[in-house]
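Suppose a classmate hands you a notebook page containing two proteins, each written out with its sequence and a corresponding row of structure tokens. How would you begin to make sense of it? This section walks through that situation. The first entry is reproduced here exactly as it would appear on such a page.
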Amino acid sequence: MRILITNDDGINAPGLEVLHQIATELAGPHGEVWTVAPAFEQSGVGHCISYTHPTMIARLGERRYAAEGSPADCVLAALGDLMEGAPDLVLSGVNRGNNAGENAMYSGTIGGAMEAALQGLPAIALSQYLGPQTADLADPFEGARHHGAAVIRRLLDHGDWSSDADFRLFYNVNFPPVPARAVQGLRVAPQGQRQGSRFAAVPYNAPNGRRFMWIAGGSQQAPARAGSDVAATMEGFVSVTPMRADLTCHASLERLAAALDDPLARAAE
């Protein structure tokens, strides 16, 4: 198996080393693991691409590259330049911190997997939830490191990898904020939203009088709807969420069309 790995924490991030270990196990002795990751941290860039300026690519070793761009840029660089032929699987992560709930909308880790899916490739985003129970671990990624390969194998065996749909599915996996031995199992769950927890701008006055701001995240321990990805990980489960690059609210289409389509058509006559 040929596997491409990327992330949004940067080429030197410890989570990428964890993912390389996972990918190497999955690829097997005759497989290949290609790394194309951002030269610098790209957390929070979502599915951004460097559309208006060039991206420099640096070769760091055999099948290992750094790109001065986003995770989506890295996937595009791998497919359009660096790899001869498409990979069998694209893995993005392992992110330092969770990408459950509303975090998924901002995540460069998910952006990398999404770009791979848009290119017609099987893709999985992986993130390690951090919390009080992981703070004192020698390896805060031990949950992902220990269980990652097994989770991906089960997804490869049982996930929907059909390429016939308009938008190919990819998968968002979050490992819970507990030691590896305390992981309860897998739970398939929809994306949730933490209650009362929002990203916000924090203003800052520099010594030279200039006005700046920091973007701050909300509490990652805030509760979310029962059965959601946030709730599952807080209960000690690895959450698995099928996703696709389609923001349409399909449940609202028929009702909205009934209310709007005919009146608009008559008004245009």
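The notebook's second entry, a different protein, reads as follows.
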Amino acid sequence: MTTLGDVLAALEAAYPPATAESWDAVGLVCGDRAEPVSRVLFCVDPLESTVDEALEVGAQLLVAHHPLMLRGVTGVPADDPKGGLVHRLIRSGVALYTAHTNADTADPGVSDALAQAIGLRVTGPLVPHLDPGASTGIGRIGELDRPEPLHEFTRRVADALPVTAWGVRSAGDPDRPVQRVAVCGGAGDSYLSDASRAGVDAYVTADLRHHPAGEHLAAGGPALVDVAHWASEWPWCGQAADVVRAALGGTVEVLVSTRRTDPWTVGVTSRTGGSSK
């Protein structure tokens, strides 16, 4: 019999909780480590939609990248949206586990999964850990087999990731050759200067803001490719599922959520082009 504890041991070997940021909330949210587990669902966001999915597929464990309760709480009443999810999970016998910044910095981790989806050969971290010789860190630097113009590379990224209303947009000369690329799953505009120092041709991340992006480009930084936050981290679900599959020899069925939990639901561009001054 495979237990919840067995599954969590595999996940924590790959994504050690001790490597999470001090502000983060990772680990087991609810569940009994002694209970049997035969099916696990992996998702980015622990929301009503993915909890619904876990119940529909008969999973005993939902593994999420984003924490359900990142900030401290004093209670989980059932009439609170997050408390209600905890009650549903417990009543249904479904455990919830989170691997967040510990999965971001792992090797391989979230950014490795993003790089692999795009077709990059990873050569190292974007921001290495301070430990001498550490292979882990935030983000990844990788290379394409051959250069391609930014407009084609942007299409490559869009084709590699799940569809979102946000889509994929890029900033820079559309014909700029791209071969050496930095990636960071999730919000990455705090690493714009690191991408510039790395000397890459393009930087792929999520949640880029107007002013930092503009200032980065004005300073001669690499081209930017901005994707939806959820889409940038979704490839990790398959990676984490493979961790459990490999560790437990097929005794546990692993599934990747098919629910789009990106909060944006409509994307519209002007039919007239408009004008701005």
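A careful reader of the second entry would note: The longest strand covers residues 137-149.
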